[in-house]
Amino acid sequence: MKLLALFFFGVIFSGGISVSRAQAQTQTFETSGGVVKITPIYHASLLIEAGGKNIYVDPAKPANFSNLPVADLILITDIHGDHMDPGSISQISKSGTEIFAPPAVVKTVSTAQPISNGETKTWNDWTIEAIPMYNIQRGPSPGQLYHTKGRGNGYVLTYGGKRFYFSGDTENIPEMRALKNIYVAFVCMNLPYTMPPDEAAQAVKAFHPQIVIPYHYRGSDLNLFKNDLQGTGIEMRLLDWYPTAD
Fold this sequence. Notes:
This protein has helices spanning 19-23, 86-92, 103-106, 174-177, 197-207, 222-229, and strands at 6-8, 11-13, 27-31, 34-42, 45-50, 53-57, 73-75, 98-101, 113-114, 120-123, 126-133, 152-159, 162-166, 184-188, 211-215, 235-236. The chain is α/β, with parallel strands linked by helices. The chain has one domain: Ribonuclease Z/Hydroxyacylglutathione hydrolase-like (Metallo-beta-lactamase, Chain A). The strands form three sheets. It has a seven-stranded mixed β-sheet. It has a seven-stranded mixed β-sheet with strand order 10-11-12-13-14-15-16. Strands 1-2 form a two-stranded antiparallel sheet. Helix 5 packs parallel to helix 6 (222-229).
């Protein structure tokens, strides 16, 4: 495989859906409870490490988890295959792995514990809040939406006094704009399923996290997002969620 040297905001990574490529992009955040490390894996899949525990969000193919640590907790946002993948869940699970997911997901992933919009759970040193994620206007046909209100969850995870937001698949909804005190926000943007970069930027400017990291952005022009955030004081970090493999 040919090595592709790409530089985004000082982050160096190489082509291929590989563990080394993902780990080279690991973001480290200091909190009062210790370091939180977040590693992008692919599309909407990521790994959170803190306090000796491993949390995965939306583990799904084609991400390769073969050399990554097993999960202590798995969070799933929605029923679509790029978020809910029973095969990947099984691959990274061990005896004692816990799974939190919306009730719509629990119908398929029966080992998951349900968590609904507006509900909060405490897990080890984490507080986990389920945040609405849904479409307002976009759908496969008139009168239908790709993501209906109440079916899926975004999540706000709090550790050591710092709040980390993972949007899931959503448009610029009031519940996102109303978020408070977000340290790091992972925000989706892709058409036709979620929202375009300029709409995502409007949402981000409304709740004003300290740091924003685009994810679930396949096919989007991230320069539009970056340009819309200029002068806001919000730090944007661009990671490669879609490596090129020969």
